Amino acid sequence: MKRSLQGKLIFSYLVVALITVLVVSALIRLTSGQSLMNLVVEQQTASLKEAVQTYYAANGSLDDFIEYYTQFNPGGAPNSAQQPGNPPQQQQPNQSHDIRGLHGLVDTQYRALLPTLGYDVGQIVPADKVQNAVAVEVDGKTVAWILPDTKFQFKLNSEEELFLQRTTLAIGLAALAGVLVAVGMGFFLSRRLIKPIRRLTQASQALSSGDLQQQVPVTSQDELGQLTTTFNTMSADLFKADQQRKRMTADITHDLSTPLQIISGYIEMLEGGEVTLTPKRIEIIKTEIEHLRRLVGDLTTLSQVEAGGLEIQLAPVQLPDLLERVYLAYQPIAARQGVEIKLDCAQELPVIRIDEGRMLQVLKNLVENALRYTPQGGEIRLGAELQADHIQISVRDSGAGIDAEDLPYVFDRFYRADKSRGGSSGKMGLGLAICKALVTAQGGTISAESAGKDQGTTMTLTFSIASGG
Questions:
Q1: 272 or 93: whose pLDDT is higher?
Q2: Which residue, 378, 386, 401, 375, is CA-closest to 459?
Q3: Axis-axis angle for helices 279-307, 431-441 (nearest 10)
Q4: φ/ψ of residue 384, rounded to 5
Q5: Helix/strand/coil for 276
Q6: Do 34 and 87 sit in the same domain of this protein?
Q7: What's the mean pLDDT when you consider all of the chain?
Q8: Is residue 427 one of the residues assigned to a domain?
Q9: Residue 217 in domain
Q10: Does this UniProt record's set of keywords contain Kinase (predicted)?
């Protein structure tokens, strides 16, 4: 039979409550009887001590104490018919006087003042039997010893037995109440505990069915709350990845189908004799083939970086020389577009360890992006500077800029370039994704900054000098 988690929790609460109640009840029942007997012994000892002190103070000795004590009321006050210091009256002694819990009374010479441990009044009680005795003092002087029953070999009277019975009944009622409260608390706590788990279960089932937009309310800050937060993050990441996958499929289909349609169209026309193969048409076909080759190459590069299969050869590199090469390569292109490109790099920068070829690929991609989005009369500034224990390389332009809503996504591999800054592969937007992958593979970071549309963009690469050579 399948049991729910709520049933298991309630059952566990009930078991714990029962065990606790049974143990506590047993301990209280055992200790209550012991405590009651201790109380009887203490009361009897106190009563006898009071009688001895009263008699000794009045008579100066304990001679004939038994005659006085037999007239001593159980309540602890001497009988009015026999006061200390008065001659004994001829009356029947009160033999019913309760001395339960006491073995007897001896004087300082161990003579029995009351029947003690089988010894009659006046007989000497052996010293080895006078143990755990309680001293009776008058004016700081010990005048007698009381022998309490430390083994509790006496019986409780009817009133004391009734008290124990009532105590046992109270313990039983308390145990029953404790069990009922435990069951009630079990229902309450288990419902509170199970509710978020059921929400997570339902959301997980929906997630497995393909509904990736699942967000569960976080109702606590404990482990369940952390689990719910993690689930929400995972669900959001899955949804984002699914959206990227769908965009990837659409973009790849578009970027592959367009050049393929152009190439296949020319081939069909050539086969039908509609056109002839001219150098211009061959150049168009070669351009489309090159576009396909670059697209496949970019995808392959990204896959290799993610799989850790891309070979990165780190070596000491002088940044000023590297940036100058990029500057000289793109200066003529920028001049033809009416864009001014500037080099702003100090010559005394420390050497850093990077892959020179891969870094050239990154910088060329960033400069090409800047040229693509910088209008005539604009400016591109290529620079590097030392910041504490880091070196920052920047490509800054005065071009179209990037909207604030697009900035967090410009390095996503499938973020469409018609919404933001794209790369060298058309609408696929793989250029910046490749830049990020290559920079990360070399131990650096890359970030984008822009004040908004038509406010220009700055791409910043950061490398630690600690990794320098």
A1: 272
A2: 401
A3: 40
A4: -155, 145
A5: coil
A6: yes
A7: 79
A8: yes
A9: no
A10: yes
| Residue 15 token pair | 């078991």
CATH of the domain at 265: 1.10.287.130
pLDDT per position as a tens digit, 176-196:
887 788 778 777 777 777 788
Residues 130 and 150 in one domain: yes
- In this structure, are 40 and 187 located in the same domain? yes
Q: What is the DSSP letter of 145?
A: E
Range(s) of the domain holding residue 364 = 315-467
What are residue 91's DSSP bridge partners?
none
What burial class does residue 8 get, using C-beta atoms within 10 Å of its C-beta: 0-12 exposed, 13-18 middle, 19+ buried?
A: exposed
Cβ-based burial of 145 (10 A; exposed 0-12, middle 13-18, buried ≥19): buried
Highest mean pLDDT among 47-56, 288-297, 418-427: 47-56
3-class DSSP state for residue 268? helix
Q: If you average pLDDT over residues 242-269, what whole number do you get?
A: 77
Whether the CA torsion 185, 187, 193, 196 is positive or negative: it is negative
Structurally, the chain folds into a number of domains equal to 3
243, 265: one domain: yes
Give the angle subtended at the CA of 163 by the CAs of 161 and 167, to the nearest 5°.
Answer: 115
Residue 212: inside a domain, yes or no?
no
CA distance 69 to 137: 17
Q: Is residue 309 pLDDT above 80, yes or no?
A: no
- 440: CATH: 3.30.565.10
**3-class SS at 241?**
helix
Boundary (domain end) residue, out of 207, 239, 259: 207
Ranking 32-36, 236-240, 279-283, 316-320 by mean pLDDT, the lowest is 32-36
**Residue 432: Cβ-neighbour burial (10 angstroms; 0-12, 13-18, 19+):** buried
* Spatial CA neighbour of 381 closest among 454, 336, 326, 424: 326
**Of residues 50, 146, 165, 66, the one with CA closest to residue 104:** 146
**Residue 446: burial class (beta carbons within 10 Å; 0-12, 13-18, 19+):** buried
